[in-house]
Structure formats: C-alpha cells, structure tokens
Amino acid sequence: MTNLPSSQSRSALIGESLEISISVNGANHALHVNPRRSLADVIREDVGLTGTHLGCEHGVCGACTVLIDGEPSRSCLMLAVQADNTEITTIEGLADADGTMHPIQTAMHEAMSFQCAFCSPGFLMSTVALLSDNPNPTEAEIREELSGNLCRCTGYESIVKGVETAVRLIGSKS
Ligand code: FES
Ligand code: FES
Fold it and tell me: Is residue 103 within 8 Å of 70, Cβ to Cβ?
C-alpha cells in the first residue's frame, strides 16, 4: 500500500516554491513557482504575456499552444517546473521587434482566418510548427496537423486557406 504524505507534509509540498529558469521569446526569466502551477498560468501571470489563451484547460482545444524547444505543446497540461531550462516561443514572439508580422500572421490576416480570434494564438503556433516540419503540406495534411486545434467560429475553411497562403508567401521569399 502506498504511503501517503501526512497532511502537514502535503501542505508543505503544496506551499513550496521552486526556482525555474525559462527563456520566453528570447528573454530569460528566473522565477519562483509553486510546483502545481501550469506553464500557461506562469506565462500569463508571471511573465505577463497574455496572448497564450486558455479555453478548455484540459488539453482539448489547443488555444494554449506554445513552442517548447521548437515543439508545439499545450501549456495548460504542462507544469511550469517541467519547462525548466527550455526555450519557449509564444504568439508574442512571432512578429519582428519592429512589429513586422511573421509571414504566417500576414497570411492569416489576408485570408481572414479568424472571427473572434480566441483560437488564433494556438492555430498560429501550431502552423509555425507544421510548416517548420513540412514547408509544403497538402490540404489534407494541413487539416490533419491542425486537427488538435478547435475553432468555434470559422468552420476552418478560412484557416486552411490562411495556411495555404502562408505556404505561398514563405515560398516566394525563399
Ligand atoms: S486550454 Fe489548453 S488545450 Fe484548451
Ligand atoms: S475565430 Fe472564434 S474560436 Fe476561432
């Protein structure tokens, strides 16, 4: 039978704050966080970047997607302490420092890929990962790769069109 910690030790564990070091969009952050807090909450509340949205908070909608060491991850499902010593990219890190939009942002803007835009950060970050792995995806591949992101408004057609526009934009620049 598993030995559970006493209520006193559980309280101590819950109250404990651990130091982590993360890079977010190229800026280093040394933070003290409760080990129970999600990465999404720490990005939004401690780092102050609220572009990462929280929808379902249990791994279904994809709104909280960020890149961790280049890989798309659901920041609502990950504990902040698990991200120690990683490089994180959020939606705020896509545009250039002078405000010039990332080609994927430009493409989705041109294709009017969003309505309320609550889902946008997740779709954009998932698209960055998709085109990094597969710069010329078919429509079927786009739909498959983005199937983990949910949108309540668009019916997805304009989002797929936005990704196809991004493929053309990026291809014309290379
Ligand atoms: S908020 Fe993370 S998957 Fe929905
Ligand atoms: S544009 Fe509203 S949820 Fe996608």
Answer: no
Q: Which class does domain 17-93 fall in?
A: alpha beta
What's the pTM? 0.90
Which pLDDT tens digits describe the chain residue by residue (174 residues)? 444 445 445 444 556 899 999 999 999 999 999 999 999 999 999 999 999 999 999 999 999 999 999 999 999 999 999 999 999 999 999 999 999 999 999 999 999 999 999 999 999 999 999 999 999 999 999 999 999 999 999 999 999 999 999 999 998 877
The pocket around ligand 2, CB under 6 angstroms, is made up of: 114-119, 151-154
Q: Quote the ligand 2 centre to 40 CA distance (angstroms).
A: 19
Domain chopping of the chain, boundaries: 17-93, 103-173
Q: Which ligand is nearest to the CA of 117?
A: 2
Count the Cβ atoms, other than its own, within 10 Å of residue 111: 18
CATH code of the domain occupying 103-173: 1.10.150.120
Exposure b/e, 112-123, CB count within 10 A at least 16 = b: ebbeeebbbbbb
